[in-house]
Amino acid sequence: MIMAITMTICFPKFAFKFISCYNLSINKKALGPFKKGLKMGKIIQFFIESKAELQKVVWPSRKDTVKYTAVVIGFSLAITVVLAATDIGLTKLLEKVFTK
User: Fold this and answer.
1) What one-character-per-residue DSSP string does 65-99 give?
2) Does 99 lie in the same domain as 55?
3) Along the chain (100 residues), what's the average pLDDT of each consecutive run of 10 residues?
């Protein structure tokens, strides 16, 4: 059974903002002693692609981050108050029902 390794390599064309992709196929039997190097190559490729993806991310500004954090904290406090009030109210209600 002969297996082939297929790898797609993409190169950006900056002038036209298109990406050219090429499929490469390698016979596994022909690789022989280089099989261990394939795993290391995949790991390296993963980090290279991860770095490229992180460079594409549009990170929020400090002002936006502070604003979003304040919204999350405010919403969390509001939910805390609602749940605490519900808990206290139900506790008092059940105490009245079961103590009579």
Assistant:
1) HHHHHHHHHHHHHHHHHHHHHHHHHHHHHHHHHHH
2) yes
3) 55 53 57 59 82 88 95 98 98 90
